Amino acid sequence: MRVVHMSDNHLGKAQFHLAEREEDLYRAFDEAIELALEQKPDLVLHTGDLFDSYRPHPRAFVRGFEGLLRIVEAGVPVVIIEGNHELGPDTVRRRMASPLINLRKLFERLGYGKLLIRLGPGAVRIGDLVVAGAPYASRGVRIADTVESLQRRSDELCGECPKVLMLHQGVRGMIKAVYPEVDFSEVARSSFDYVAMGHYHNRVVRRSGGRVFAYSGSTEIIETREIPLSGEGKYILVVDLQGDGMEVRSLRLRTRPFIYFSEVVKNTRDLFSLIERIREQARSLGSERRPVIYGKVELGDEVRAGLPTLEMRRSLSDVALHVIVREIRTPREEEGAPTVSGVGLEELVQSAISSMKLDEGVRSLALRVFDLWYREGKRGEDFVRGVLGLMEEGL
Ligand SMILES: [Mn+2]
Question: Mapping DSSP to helix (H, G, I), strand (E, B) and coil, where does residue 17 land?
Fold first, then answer.
């Protein structure tokens, strides 16, 4: 049995507010589907965040619909779960259907109801394979309990069949940076043969006792924090489940190139040498798509703030789609000045909130509010409604 696993296309996101980046994400999704179908799979698994928003732009909705339609028209079933981006305050509280529910309704009307399967949560048998899965659940929900009940339902469907579990969660012990909702041990305690995961945007394939736990990663660069790892590429996974073994292959997608840099610029000579090197690198890419150039410079005393950004934009804009420079001035060491190294914003906020003298309820509310703002990306009205929702729930 051959299964293709893909995730996190984030259709509809226009990174850096660029129409070209919105199109890049559609292209990556289309290519993922093309590569998937070339494999003649028995099944396609989608582990969430097909859309960037739970209220996708019609353009994104149509592209998502067309892509999945190509798969089911080839007679291949698709099993999909919601990622955090498909769940807004409204969808979570059941007042509004998620975009995946709307997609499913359309497929049903077209007579493809049996081929587009949304697990919300649930388990299905497809041929000799059992596939179980659950939508994204935020921190505070006991994911270990969900896994346990999905295991029971899967065993009831077929005892000896190979089994797949689909989750859109951060798993501690498999990923860094995104803060996790569940421990690896709690997922590994189950007996699913292949655990297909979404949410983390870099590919991670972990083998353990003949079983495989894998994040296929996103199909394009979605967040700026993925840029330093852009050289590693973006993938879909092809899983061959045989009687006693499993083979997992990665198929690389042709995404837009990114050039990442991180340099100390002591003077203007350093700056122009950096620009020349990046220009050479951009030229040597040989890509039909111009790269995004993104990085940071640590400014020496002789360099005026703003100059690197100005010069790099001016001299590289002909070879790049977009140039982003983060300028950092190294603070002179002062006694007693707090130093933070290698700690991300999430960890920093978490430890700051944790160190405050707060009532436990207030502390966890503060963490959840940060979660809404930072990870679920809620802004404006959505954010306010999200916070009010949390307070109503007494969380
Ligand atoms: Mn995602």
Answer: helix
Predicted model pTM? 0.83
Q: How far is the CA of 349 from the centre of ligand 1 (A)?
A: 21
Q: How far is the CA of 199 from the centre of ligand 1 (A)?
A: 4
Q: Which amino acid is at 251?
A: L
CA distances from 79 to 42, 52, 231, 361 (A): 11, 18, 30, 37
Q: If you measure from the C-alpha of residue 219 to the centroid of ligand 1, how many angstroms do you get, rounded to a whole number?
A: 10
| Partner residues linked to 197 by β-bridges | 167, 215
The Å distance, Cα 123 to ligand 1 centre, comes to: 23
Domain extents for the chain?
2-252, 258-329, 345-392
Identify which of 142, 141, 163 has the alpha carbon closest to the alpha carbon of residue 152. Answer: 163
Asked which of 51-55, 75-79, 379-383 is least confident by mean pLDDT, the reply is 379-383
For the residues 128-140, what does the mean pLDDT come to? 92
pLDDT in tens, 371-393: 777 766 677 767 777 777 677 65
Arithmetic mean of pLDDT, 69-74: 98
Model confidence at 395, in pLDDT bands (50, 70, 90)?
very low
- 83 CA from centroid of ligand 1 (Å): 7
Rounded distance between C-alpha atoms, residue 56 and residue 97, angstroms: 12
Angle at 157 between CA 245 and CA 136, to 5 degrees: 80
Half-sphere exposure of 115 (CA within 13 A, CB side): 17
Query: Please, which residues have CB less than 5 A from ligand 1, an ion?
Result: 8, 49
Which residue, 230, 144, 223, is CA-closest to 177?
Answer: 223
Distance 138 CA to ligand 1 centre (A): 14
**Cα of 56 from ligand 1 centre, angstroms:** 14
Strand duo 182-183 + 171-172: pairing: parallel
Centre of ligand 1 to C-alpha 222, Å, is 8
Measured CA to CA, the distance from residue 365 to residue 138 in angstroms comes to: 13
Q: What is the pLDDT of residues 7-31, one digit of tens each?
A: 999 999 999 999 999 999 999 999 9
Q: How far is CA 172 from CA 82, 136, 138, 146, in A?
A: 20, 15, 14, 17
Question: What's the fold here for domain 2-252?
Answer: Purple Acid Phosphatase; chain A, domain 2 (3.60.21)
